Amino acid sequence: MLRVRYLVRLSGIDFAEDYWVADIRIQVPFDKAVLIGRKFHEGFNSAEERVAFGRRVSELYSRPAFPTEISAHIVESLRRWFNKSDKRVTAIRAAGVIGFRLRVAGDGPFDAQLMVVLAQSTNADAAMQALQPWFVNVTSKCEAARINLLEPMYTSLGMVTAETYLTFNPIALEYLTQFVEQ
């Protein structure tokens, strides 16, 4: 089942009879003193759900700051491409893609390379097949914007060195896709 990425269902006992969600895009500043003496409602049934919620909220604020050209021509392009069809997200998940990372060098013209992180390196062909239409389409647009987009690197965590892995900046799959699997 797919769900909208910024809505999180509350599963705590106080919310069990109805369907309650938290919209993680909303921020309300207030003084903590207003919480004194208030009854709290547990939002989740388990520690795992609480940790997953915290991770989703933190992803909203932990995106790397890429140069504008890179964001527009690569990151946002990939995001728009995914959000045009749920089948693209399903294909990427089926190929075992667990994340994306991006390496950028230069001050313009830029060199850029996408790392596609797989659960197992044996799934690289399926991931390549799923992403090839996007890569072919975006390459010419990148060239016009003075971005040299190198072929994506398809690898698993067990196959890439820590040094190489750390030279790439993370791009959360949840950020790139409108929907996340439940």
Overall description:
The protein has 182 residues and is of the alpha/beta class. α2 crosses α4 (124-144) and α3 (86-94) packs across α4. The mean pLDDT is 85. β5, α4 and β6 (147-149) form a beta-alpha-beta unit. It folds into 2 domains: 2-61, no CATH class; 68-181, GMP Synthetase, Chain A, domain 3 (2-Layer Sandwich), CATH 3.30.300. It contains 6 helices and 9 strands; from the N terminus they run βββαααββαββαβαβ. Strands 4, 5, 6, 7 and 8 form a 5-stranded mixed beta sheet that branches. The protein has helices at residues 47-61, 68-83, 86-94, 124-144, 162-166, 173-176; strands at residues 2-4, 7-9, 21-23, 97-105, 110-118, 147-149, 153-156, 169-171, 179-181.
Give me the secondary-structure topology.
Elements: E1 2-4, E2 7-9, E3 21-23, H1 47-61, H2 68-83, H3 86-94, E4 97-105, E5 110-118, H4 124-144, E6 147-149, E7 153-156, H5 162-166, E8 169-171, H6 173-176, E9 179-181
Parallel strand pairs: 5-6, 5-7
Antiparallel strand pairs: 1-9, 2-3, 4-5, 4-8
The dominant shape is elongated
Work out the helix count. Answer: 6
Beta content: 15-25%
CATH fold annotation of the largest domain: GMP Synthetase, Chain A, domain 3
How many domains?
2
User: What's the architecture of the largest domain in CATH terms?
Assistant: 2-Layer Sandwich
Per CATH, the class of the largest domain reads Alpha Beta
Structural class: alpha/beta
